[in-house]
Design goal:
mainly beta, 295 residues, 3 helices, extended
Amino acid sequence: WKEHQTVHTTSSLSSPQKLLGVLTVSPGINMTHTTYHVEWNPKVDSLGLETDRLFTRKTYNLNVSTNTTLYGTVRPNMLGIAGLRHVVTPSVSYRFTPEIEENEEYRSYTGVGASSRRSKSLSYSLGNLFQTKYISGDNEKKIDLFTMNFSGSYNFAAEEKKIGDLASSIRTAAIPHVNLDYNASYSFYNFDDSRRPLTNPRLKSASINTTIRGGYRAGKQEGDQDSISYSEESSRESFLRKGRSERTEFSGVGVEFTLKHRYQITKGISGTTKTQWLNLGLQMQPTSGWKISYN
């Protein structure tokens, strides 16, 4: 058994600055402070830990990030389309973490506190949002067509495999009551750790998530729309757990359902694995005072 007392605190400081009216630069620092006191037992004695006083461990990292937002718009004024807009959000951040070994043995024993391995990492992301405006009667309406995002990193302090995986995603909720979500991860290294060309990364995994929602409510006004959110399950457990926890809530008599399908492919050194999951959530409300849920 383990018996110990710890006090762990975290603090951070950042100062966003606007440059040239379009570029946001945010320098910052994150700090942790942990105090330890361990009680004696045979394992503590074998590890050489002291039990008669308090020990502290302090860690920190420095970071700076910059981002901006760019817009591009065209107005075709044809086929009922009043405008198309492309919103680009590039972001770059740098983080430095020194290697700190102060009282590391107490952090390892208690499991409390922050590890601090030396790293100098650069992270980047590129967000893309595509929107359209169309004419409906005498009004203009706006729709978010889809998003397309990319992100990755580079660790200057790593001895090997400095380039981090490239993550990409495409999501859309433009189709009423339907969400489509594609995620993929790429590596710039072969299985033997040799480098690949930057223009030809290796696919590690990819998944396609489809969510369909629908139902009927007594007294629902025509044209009412249910809120739609993207699903970002990364495993079978979280996929099923979200199916249980994200049941659609509604008031009034009626029935609603949520159907989710996930297809995933993973490419490893031993071969390719393909999996599929199907989840159905059903909620019925026969009266205003009763609800029946099935998942």
